[in-house]
């Protein structure tokens, strides 16, 4: 009887050891865990839950001012850096290789983006976030021409006292929907006084996010995420991303969302359908196969203006660990939405034309009244022309009817 019991114990011990070794083998060979989130290099994203626990903690601190060097921000940056360093290690090695040989459009990350989450060093203070419905994030630049564009927006469609805004204050549909407009800006770098001028501008107007991001086209994706992360700390329903060479009738945007019954999840704009991915080395919009391994882009909304419901923001923050971000931020968001199985919405009252500034004087009044957002290349002069026409049509002695 004793030997029988000992034999059973030995069998049990042996089976336990086998199970332990099997589990260790599975952990070492992580490719069998298909449910574990991975980045584009195949590394397991083992810190996402930690990061988002910290992020939720940050979001809950609604009074947090991001430019303060708080312990929460340091904790977030440390955790994000640890994960993104692993994501970028292989990519950086590829970049070094590609600097010394012909670029491999298939196997290199080209053009290389050293993506990281950046929190603004300067941001609006004393923001009344109670019942804030939408944040409008205007992507802008660091040099003189961009300061002129920002000033034009402040005086035209971003001006809360313009005619259309005054009329909206009496509109039962939208009068209680609060919005906030901020400009998202990086750094001009040494050799100019632009950064000092931008900081003075931010102090004067209290409507700018300035992050330690070198201003160039490749870093647009980093600026996009900086704005969205900052906006996510508020209990908002939507963000609207725009460029600074567009004209947006914000009350009409709010009215659209009301009439659509506040859709969620929502990804809406002027939609590009199935465009071919540019693989030509040196092209402005070129993206290598390493970043995106399909021939065509899915349908996506161009970056001039598009709207996201806030329930999509955390999913976008997670997505950078699944697919390494590339520089064409609008296409990247479109790919993410396709992967999230979020239906794209085409907003018919949005209109994009590469020479919109030349078209504006030719457009008829009734056409303009039917549009909610117009771009690209709406320079300060064109913005003023549009503003004056809308003021006359909407609040003139004889309001225009179509």
UniProtKB/TrEMBL annotation:
Transmembrane region(s): 10-28
Membrane-protein topology: Single-pass type II membrane protein
Enzyme class per UniProt: transferase
Primary location: Golgi
Gene Ontology, cellular component aspect: Golgi membrane
InterPro entries in the record: Glyco_trans_31
UniProt KW keywords: Glycosyltransferase, Golgi apparatus, Membrane, Signal-anchor, Transferase, Transmembrane, Transmembrane helix
One function term, GO molecular function aspect: hexosyltransferase activity
Record-level GO BP terms: protein O-linked glycosylation
Pfam families, per the entry: Galactosyl_T (PF01762)
EC number: 2.4.1.-
Compartments it resides in: Golgi apparatus membrane
Similarity comment text for this entry: Belongs to the glycosyltransferase 31 family.
Name assigned to this protein: Hexosyltransferase
């Amino acid at each position: 009887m004793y030997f029988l019991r000992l034999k059973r114990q030995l069998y049990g011990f042996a089976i336990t050891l086998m199970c332990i070794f099997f589990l260790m083998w599975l952990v070492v060979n992580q490719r069998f865990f298909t449910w574990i989130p991975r980045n584009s290099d195949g590394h397991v994203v083992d810190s996402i839950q930690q990061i988002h626990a910290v992020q939720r903690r940050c979001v809950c601190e609604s009074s947090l001012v991001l430019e303060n060097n708080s312990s929460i921000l340091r904790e977030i940056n440390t955790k994000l850096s640890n994960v993104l360093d692993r994501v970028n290690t292989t990519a950086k090695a590829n970049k070094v290789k590609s600097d010394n040989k012909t670029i491999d459009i298939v196997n290199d990350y080209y053009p290389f983006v050293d993506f990281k989450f950046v929190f603004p060093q300067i941001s609006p203070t004393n923001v009344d976030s109670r019942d804030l419905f939408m944040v409008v994030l205007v992507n802008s630049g660091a040099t003189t021409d961009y300061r002129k564009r920002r000033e034009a927006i402040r005086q035209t469609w971003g001006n809360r006292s313009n005619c259309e805004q005054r009329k909206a204050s009496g509109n039962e549909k939208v009068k209680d929907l609060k919005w906030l407009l901020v400009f998202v800006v990086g750094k001009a770098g040494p050799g100019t006084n632009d950064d000092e001028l931008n900081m003075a501008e931010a102090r004067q107007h209290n409507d700018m996010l300035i992050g330690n991001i070198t201003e160039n086209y490749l870093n647009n994706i980093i600026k996009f995420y900086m704005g969205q992360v900052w906006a996510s700390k508020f209990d908002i329903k939507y963000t609207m991303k725009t460029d600074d060479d567009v004209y947006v009738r914000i009350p009409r945007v709010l009215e659209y969302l009301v009439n659509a019954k506040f859709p969620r999840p929502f990804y809406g704009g002027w939609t590009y359908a199935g465009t071919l991915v540019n693989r030509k080395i040196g092209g402005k919009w070129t993206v290598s196969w390493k970043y995106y391994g399909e021939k065509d882009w899915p349908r996506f909304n161009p970056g001039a203006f598009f709207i996201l419901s806030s329930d999509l923001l955390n999913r976008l923050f997670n997505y950078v660990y699944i697919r390494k971000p590339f520089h064409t931020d609008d296409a990247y968001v479109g790919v993410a939405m396709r992967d999230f199985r979020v239906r794209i919405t085409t907003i018919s009252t949005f209109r994009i034309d590469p020479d919109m500034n030349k078209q504006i004087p030719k457009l008829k009044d009734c056409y303009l009244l039917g549009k909610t957002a117009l771009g690209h290349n709406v320079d300060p002069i064109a913005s003023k022309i549009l503003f004056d026409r809308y003021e006359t049509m909407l609040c003139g002695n004889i309001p225009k009817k179509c």
